[in-house]
Structure formats: structure tokens, C-alpha cells
Amino acid sequence: MVLIPAYNESATLGAIVEQVRALSDHPVAVIDDCSTDSTAAVARAAGAIVLPLSLQLGAWGAIQTGLRFALREGCRMAVTLDADGQHEPEYMQDLLKPILADEADVVIGAYPERASPARRLAWRYFRVLTGFGLEDITSGFRAYNHAAMSILASPEASLLDYQDVGVLLILRRRGLRILEVPVPMRPRTQGISRIFNSWWKVSGYMAQTSLLCVARVGRGRRPSPTGRR
């Protein structure tokens, strides 16, 4: 199942859903995080299943809702991509290949070149704290197998506010294999990042994620193979 968390993304969402449906016969679920525009209507018109949230949960809460729905529907794999048009659906198969070949449990579509100098500095900081050898630890373009979906749908993962470092720490603690695959990415043409749109939010993100890292979540076990193709 293809999962797309969305908040006020009516300008770009319809084309993304249509492109995904044209490329594959996988069901597409849009998790509408209490949008105030026509996001839900646009998604339905494009042929997506719409999961409307009654309470705004943020990007990670929306993805977790989608993962639980996908598991309930009997799906064995899930791909997540953003609704802002930055991720290119034609590369979904590149993310799924290592999972289908049993080379990875989680695959990240990586495009570190998109990052500003400040974001690159933040990634380097988190790589030092976590020990991850990943280039793009905040990418929302990911593929998960059934084991990863089950772990991330659990109440343990509900404690997270963001979909990046904390998620990877939980997966590593459970011994899952994480792999990066280089993908291109388009620049955002509409809207703004929900995290990196103010220094206040960036400060909160850095503080919360640092606390997760310092608490050594995911430590104590031999790290699973992580790398970049």
C-alpha cells in the first residue's frame, strides 16, 4: 500500500495520487491530518482511499495511522511519500527491490543534496549521536516490509513525534536492516515544511530528537547493517 500523509496539500496531491495509480495497482491511502483546504476531496477524486483524522497528529502520527490501516487490510509492504510533490513515485520500485530480494527490511530514498548547510550540520550531529551511517536520515520517502510495519504500528512507536531518527532507532533496536537507495527529488513548489518553517519548531525538533539519542534508544544491541547502495 502507498501511504501519503497530507495537511493542506490540495495543490499537489491530486497529481501525485494519479501518478502513483498510473504506475502501479497498489492501493493508495491518503491520511488527511485535519486539513482546512480541499485535500480530502482532491484525494478522493484522484482515486485514493482517504483516512480522515479527527485530531491532528502530525506527519508521523498520520503515517502510523496508515501503517495500522495497511496491516488491517493484509498488506505486506508499505511505501510512504510526501504530499508536497518532492518525491517522484516512479522510484517506488527502486525502494521495493531490496525488500523483495530480502536484502533489507527498510529502504530510504535518499537525496542528501537537497539539504541546506544548516540541515546538513543537523544530520551530521545526529549521525554522531546515533552511530547511523546514513546520508539522509530525515527522508520521508521510505519502504517498509511487514516486520517493520508491525513494529512501527505498535504503541511503543506512538510515543514519537517525528518520522525520522526516532523511527530508525526503534527499528535498529529490533535488529532490522536499513538501507539507503539514491533517488532524485524535486524542489517543493507549494507550501512549507512543517518542521523547518521556524526557528522555534526547529529548536523543538532538535531538542526532542537529541533526547531520544541521548537516552540511547536503540543501543545495547549490535547495530543492524545500514548502508547506501
Low-confidence stretches: 220-225
* Mean pLDDT across all amino acids: 86
The CATH superfamily appears as Spore Coat Polysaccharide Biosynthesis Protein SpsA, Chain A
CATH architecture: Alpha-Beta Complex
The biggest sheet amounts to: 8 strands, mixed
What global shape is seen? globular
Q: What number of domains? A: 1
Tally of strands: 8
What CATH first level would be assigned?
Alpha Beta
Tell me the Rg in angstroms.
Answer: 16 Å
How many H/I helices? 8
Helix content: 25-40%
- Range of strand content: 5-15%
InterPro entries: Glyco_trans_2-like, Glycosyltransferase_2, Nucleotide-diphossugar_trans
Organism: Thiocapsa rosea
Domain Glycosyltransferase 2-like: 2-126
Protein name: Glycosyltransferase 2-like domain-containing protein
Can you tell me about this structure?
Residues 2-126 form the Glycosyltransferase 2-like domain. This is Glycosyltransferase 2-like domain-containing protein. With 229 residues, the protein is of the alpha/beta class. The chain has a single domain, classed as Alpha-Beta Complex (Spore Coat Polysaccharide Biosynthesis Protein SpsA, Chain A), CATH 3.90.550.10. It has eight helices and eight strands; from the N terminus they run E-H-E-H-E-H-E-H-E-H-E-H-H-E-H-E. It has helices at 10-23, 39-45, 58-72, 92-100, 117-130, 146-152, 165-173, 199-214, and strands spanning 2-6, 28-32, 49-52, 78-80, 106-110, 142-144, 178-182, 226-228. Strands 3-2-1-4-6-5-7-8 form an eight-stranded mixed β-sheet, sandwiched between helices. It is globular, with a radius of gyration of 16 Å.
